[in-house]
Amino acid sequence: MAQHGFVNVYSGQLPSLRKKGLFERIRCTGDISGFSLYLQYFAVLCSIPVLSAFPSDIMFCVFRKTTSEGS
Fold first, then answer.
1. pLDDT grade, residue 5 (50/70/90)?
2. Of 20, 36, 40, 63, which has the fewest Cβ atoms less than 10 A away?
């Protein structure tokens, strides 16, 4: 990015899984219903604390284009 005139303004990581919206994401697959839906939701929900012990696999960066002098 630097060779194209950008500087990193901010970077961070996002959690791979979050409780908020989890049930809706599992349900929207459309092929899960009833007991299986709740069982999968509970299993994934219980795995979130374990998975948060590992590094996140989602990273983001915000870049800003630098201005060159004389332009």
1. very high
2. 20
Cα distances (angstroms) measured from residue 44 to each of 18, 25, 28, 52: 10, 11, 15, 12
H or E element, residue 14? strand 6-14
Positive or negative: CA dihedral 20, 24, 29, 31: positive
Q: What is the pTM of this model?
A: 0.57
The DSSP result for 23-70, as a single string, is HHHHHTTSS--HHHHHHHHHHHHHHHHHHTTSPPSEEEEEEEEPPPTT
